[in-house]
Amino acid sequence: QVQLVESGGGLVQAGGSLRLSCAASGRTSSSYAMGWFRQAPGKERVFVATINRSGGSTGYADSVKGRFTISRDNAKNTVYLQMNSLKPEDTAVYYCAARGASGGYDFWGQGTHVTVSS
What we know:
The chain is mostly beta strands. It has strands at residues 2-7, 10-13, 18-26, 33-39, 45-51, 58-60, 68-73, 78-83, 92-99, 105-108, 112-117.
């Protein structure tokens, strides 16, 4: 198993940037493909970005493509989400998750809040 802890959320003005981090402990995060998801108030949790185990392949939701970048440092067991050109509609709780042997995202962090003011 792996335990995930997100950090880096906060309040930022529209157009600003934030970098979220997801630190893994337990089984090393390099064993897992990783993803970021977000849940806005009153809405369902949705996919944001994913990265494979080596970091060589990434994928993004259309809503963040060109603005967000997912990356990982396997030596530090950490996955990042660099968020640029933030918009008020990016306001949400952001979660990182690890894809387990089942093929689904089996392990989740507790989330970090991001608020973008207009």
